[in-house]
Amino acid sequence: MNTAQLKKFCTALPAATSRLSGPPANVLVYSVGGKNFAWFKTSDPEKWRFSFRVSPDRFIELTDMPGIKPARYMARFHWVTIVDVRSMPEDYLKELVRWAYEKALSGLSAKRRNALPELRDDASF
Predict the structure, then answer these.
(1) How much is the pLDDT for 114?
(2) Which helix (H) or strand (E) holds 73?
C-alpha cells in the first residue's frame, strides 16, 4: 500500500475528515468528530511519514520492528510513526488504522457520535 492508497483509505472511513495544517506543523490530519486518529507529515525531512494511535500492547510490538518508531511528542499516548508505509503489509496496516479510527470514535460522546451523518441509522424514524 502506498501513500496515495492509504490517504484514500483513511478518507473513506465513515465520517472521517482530513485537514491540512500548515507551518510549523506541516501535517495532513485525519479525524472523526474532531478526534484525530492518524496523520501524515507533509514536509521534509520526514515527508509522508505516517503516524497513528495503537493499543499499548501493539505499541511495544510495533516499536520493536524496523522502520517504526514512537511518534514524536505523542509516544506517551501510544502513537507510532511508520517511516515508509510501503514496508507494511496492507491488511495489517488497514487493521491498525481501523483500530485507531474506532478508538477515536469511541472517545466521542454519544451526542457527538450521533451527530455524525454517516453514522446515523437511516432506517430509524
Answers:
(1) 87
(2) none
Three-state secondary structure string covering 2-25: CHHHHHHHHHHCCCEEEEEECCCC
The reported pTM is: 0.88
Residue 2 confidence (pLDDT) above 50 = yes
User: Angle at the Cα of 23 (from 104 to 71), degrees rounded to 5?
Assistant: 45
Nearest residue to 13 (alpha-carbon basis) of 100, 115, 114: 100
CA distance 16 to 10: 7
The predicted model gives 101-117 an average pLDDT of 91
Q: Which three cell numbers stand for residue 82?
A: 511508520
**Whole-angstrom distance between the N-terminal and C-terminal Cα of the chain?**
40
Residue with cell 491540512: 20
Reduce the DSSP state of residue 79 to 3 states and report it.
strand
User: How many angstroms separate the most distant Cα atoms in the chain?
Assistant: 52
What is the mean predicted confidence (pLDDT) over 14-28?
92
